[in-house]
Amino acid sequence: MNITENAVESLLNIKQAAKVLNASEISLRRWSDAGKLPCLRIGVRRERRFRLADLLAYLEHDQAKEKTGLPEHAACQIAHIDLEGISINYGSHLCAFYDTDLGRLKLALPFLLDGLQADNRCFMVAAIEVQTLILKELRDVRSCIDQDMQEGRFIITDGRSNSIELYTFFENAFLNASKHGIKGMRVLGDMAWTLQKGMGVDELNEFETRYNQGLGHRFPVVSLCQYDARLFPGTAILKALKCHDDTFRYPLTHFLGV
Fold first, then answer.
1. How far are the Cα atoms of 33, 169, 191 from residue 156, in angstroms, in the given order?
2. Which of 103, 203, 248, 251 fits 257 for a cystine, CB–CB 3.0-4.6 Å?
3. Strand arrangement of the beta sheet that strand 47-50 belongs to
4. pLDDT per residue as tens digits for the range 49-84
5. Considering the entire predicted model, what is its pTM?
6. In the chain, where does the domain assigned CATH 1.10.1660.10 lie?
């Protein structure tokens, strides 16, 4: 991860962060390892560094929990998934970009495979040809992938013709999963399907923004929307970044293909 000297200076080391939270360094290590408290790893020694905004958000969440006396949401109980060596909280809505066929698979395969192995309910929204490619790779490492689909653990769709229908699809799917006691979900969206369905960039951005403000954070789901940079213009990629702000909690290089 490349970080400028000014950016490093603006981060807090673990001793400083512990003072902000009035907690021990051991607790901060445990919380960050569990994905409850975001942190960055700097330098050869991979030392922890913390953003003040993340520390304040953690404090606010902890204080709100004390006031209500309510148990944490299921997303917080499950805490996180591991992807490419980083811990990602449930309730995260992320975006990734690639410009090669291999880059398309870099995150998609471990994201879905690990989810199925962890008994998550997994969703894939992709054009038919992309579905075929990803399924081929999954079958090489998971022989029961067809059974996963038959039994509803892995749900695949080529999208919807408009953003309202797509939002309704996910809302119903997430509610159904919650009703059946599913404790974790993953959504992979390879967004090239929108071009085939005729969904324009503005409507796509409207959906992403609504999902980011609603479903993506209300349910114990990690959502990964990946964009083929060969197909989408720069303005679409910029808009995607703007409505996937969770991505910036993690090293961005993880989300830039290969």
1. 32, 12, 14
2. 103
3. 12-13, 47-50, 40-42
4. 888 888 888 777 665 544 444 344 433 344 577 887
5. 0.68
6. 5-68
